[in-house]
Structures are given as C-alpha cells and as structure tokens.
Amino acid sequence: MKTVKILVPSGALGLGYDPVALARGIALKPDLIAIDGGSTDSGPSYLGRGVSKYARASTKAEWAGLVVARAEAGCPLVIGTAGTCGTDSMVDWLYDITLEILAEHGITAKISTLKSGQPAARVQKALAEDKVSALSAAPDISDEVLASCTNIVALAGAEQIAAALKTGADIIIAGRTTDTAIIAALPIMRGLAAGPAWHGAKIGECGALCATNPQSGVICVDFDDNGFTITPMADGAHATPHTVSAHMLYENSNPFILYEPGGHLDVTNATYTALDASRVRVTGSKWHVGEHYTVKLEGALIAGYQTIIFALVRDPRYIENISDWCDDILTKHRAKACARLGLEVDDFTTELRIIGKNATLGDMESATETMSEAGIMGIVTASDQQTANSIAKLLNPYLLHHPLTQAEEQPTFAFPFSPAEIDRGANYAFALNHVMVLDNPMDAFTLEVHP
C-alpha cells in the first residue's frame, strides 16, 4: 500500500518544539516536514504592516533547528504563511534568514518561494467580473476599499504547494496558505485519496494540539489511501479518539465540514479507532470537489491612528461606581474635544475600558467578585496621529482628577507612565473576508526557484 509520512514539529514556527521528540520523528524517515508560520489570530496589524509577530532572532533559532533536521532526514521542509501574515515581504524575510542558516551550518539546499500577495488591480478586476464573493459577516468592499488595503493575500491550497514540491526544492517558503494545505499537498500529489489527506492535514495542522499533551509539539501523520494515523512523538503525549475528533472544531464552526480551495471535506462518516495508548487511526473521510476553484482573500487597511492612556483607581467608592464614573468622563470629554478641537462626533472615537472588570467579555461577564482596584485604559482613534494625541491629552485631566459628584473634594488617581499618552500609530482593520474564483490555481500566485 502506498503511504506518505509527514512530520509536524509544532502548531506554528515561534511556539517552540521538543528537540527530543523532533529527533524521534526524524528517525522515522518522514517524506516531508511541514510547519505553519502564522495566522490572523493576533489581529490585522501584522498583515497590514507586512511584518512578523515573532522576533527575528527567535524565528531564526527555531527555523535553524528544522533546516538542520531536514538535511538529516533528506526530505523537503515546507512552511506556510511565512512570517505570521504570509505577505510577499515576509517570504523574502524568511528566505534571507534561511540563506544565513545554510551558510552558518555549511548546508546546501534548493529553495522555492511561493508568494500569495495580490495587487489591488487583480482583485478589482475579479470583483468587476463577479468572481469575488462575500463569506459570512464580510465587510462591504469596493474598488476604493481594495485600493486602500496596504496588503492583500490569497490563501494557497494543496495545488500551489504541490507545484512548489514538483520543483524538487529542499525547502519551500510559502506566503499565506491554509493551515492544512502544506500537509495535504504531498499525499494528494502522490495519488492518495483526497478525503484522508485533507482530514489528516486538519488534525495535524497544530501539531500535538490533537493529543493529551498539547504543548509538546511534534506529531507524525501517516497517510494511505484508506485513512491516516496520528502518532505524537513526545513523552506523555497520547492521541485518543476524543482528542483527534475534537480538533475538527478547532477554528472551524462545523465539526463535520471543512472548506478548502477547490472543494470541501466531509467527515460525517469518519471512524476514529485507538490503535494503542498513543495512536489513533481514522478512516471514512470524503472530499467533494467544488463547482469552482476558489481561494480565500485577506486584506487589511489603516482604519485611523490611536493614542492610549492608562489610569489606576483604588478608592473603594470609585471602584464600586467605576462604570458611572467612566460614562460621565466620556460624556464630558467628547463635548470638550468637539468644542476645543473643532471636531464632529463622528471624527473620532474614545473608549474607556475597565481592565479588571469585564475587560474581556464586557456585558456577557457572569463573574461578580469584588474588585479592589481597576485599570482604566483610554483608547482614542482619529484620522491622524496628532489629532488622536490631542484628544487623549484632553482626556488626561479627567482620568487624573475627575470626581464622582460635583459636591465632593477633587480626587487624585495614578498614571503608570509619564507621559501618560502613548501613541500607537496606525490602527489596522481587516477589510476582506471573501473568496475569489480562479480559472487556474496558479493564476494568483508566484512560484520562484532559487538553486
């Protein structure tokens, strides 16, 4: 029976991996080492700016371990969504890091880069041709919105990764991809059934997150034409039918259906079987080819500029009435900002977030424990940095001295920083949650080989 063995060192480059477990996986002689490089989990700023959330030195240290392991294994190494956001600039960034590592370790390797960046004009043309469709809760888009995006990427699928593998590259650095594509590509490319390939890729995308020791990192996924087997590599990590099947719900609203470029996976009739205390075998997954080949689009644009300001409150009576205090400050501050800076109410936003009281869930919070102190975070957003900073400066005296009532003595609170106002710079927002139809899977991607 034809088989493909893929080693996944971690859920993402930057999270770390167990070197002992990695060595065990390399000893199994994998056909491919695959690791994800990022996601949209940390918000739109990284995509908007085209930068990584991880430090270069840290990324280089982890990536070096995998580059050396790849040379030992003699198989390709693939990373998707390079540099957190997968922009073309981040592909180049990781490519430069890779060259440094190869030189420092005296290793030679053929590298292929797959870029996912989309010129606004390409997406505008597709929009005009009715080849761009909105996903659930997608924002409205127009030619103007697309032109204002600082970066747009398309999520590559198995076809684009397969094209990169066919170059014979030792190392493939891909821009934005689906988390699963870097794993599913090789089994499909070698003729194995697409259902088990996509399902195994989904389960293995985050490494040992599908096992009982989620932080241990390294897993091995063995594919064949009938199914796949999950094997965690670290001590104390065990895959069970529960941990494996549950991962279909990770970042996916439907536990049975998963949409990918070119179709969707259906695991309604999948069977999960424990082979022993650590391994799980899965069969029964099906792949359905879509009517059109579509890729998801992500884009980010500048939605204003922000200045933040913090204050700390410990007075029990103020803590007890903290929401009313904040509401009164906001009312007075907005009126003053409009009057003194010549602004309209719609020209800016000011928020006061009570850190320590419902800061995460807001009105949905159910816990009612008594608070002893609260941090107040003011967030001012305006069309430019100077205006945001000026509005925040008007907020400063309120957070330092504003009384609950006009009849009482003036209180004094605390600023943890001086100056109290901190300019955050550009505030980015996601502008796209759409799919784009491609006549050919490579139409929106650039593949380059670096001998």
Strand elements, count: 20
| Oligomer description | single chain
Low-confidence stretches: none
> Which structural category fits the helices and strands?
alpha+beta
User: What is the count of DSSP helices, taking H or I runs of 4+ residues?
Assistant: 13
The percentage helix is 25-40%
Give the strand line-up of the largest sheet: 12-13-9-8-1-2-3-7-4-20
Set out the fold topology.
Blueprint: E1 4-8, H1 19-27, E2 32-38, H2 45-49, H3 56-73, E3 77-84, H4 88-105, E4 111-115, H5 120-128, E5 132-134, H6 143-148, E6 149-154, H7 158-165, E7 171-174, H8 181-189, H9 194-204, E8 219-223, E9 227-232, H10 241-246, E10 257-260, E11 263-266, E12 271-274, E13 280-283, E14 286-289, E15 293-313, H11 316-320, H12 322-341, E16 348-355, E17 374-382, H13 385-401, E18 421-430, E19 434-438, E20 446-450
Helix pairs in contact: 1-3, 3-4, 7-8, 8-9, 12-13
Structural write-up:
The chain has 451 residues and is an alpha+beta fold. The chain has two domains: 4-116 and 155-290, no CATH class; 302-430, Alpha-Beta Plaits, CATH 3.30.70.600. Helices cover 31% and strands 28% of the residues. It has 13 helices and 20 strands. The chain has helices at residues 19-27, 45-49, 56-73, 88-105, 120-128, 143-148, 158-165, 181-189, 194-204, 241-246, 316-320, 322-341, 385-401; strands spanning 4-8, 32-38, 77-84, 111-115, 132-134, 149-154, 171-174, 219-223, 227-232, 257-260, 263-266, 271-274, 280-283, 286-289, 293-313, 348-355, 374-382, 421-430, 434-438, 446-450. The strands form three sheets. Strands 12-13-9-8-1-2-3-7-4-20 form a ten-stranded mixed β-sheet, with helices on both faces. Strands 5, 6, 15, 16, 17, 18 and 19 form a seven-stranded antiparallel β-sheet that branches. Strands 10-11-14 form a three-stranded antiparallel β-sheet, with helices on one face. Strand 8 and strand 9 (227-232) form a beta hairpin. The two termini are 34 Å apart.
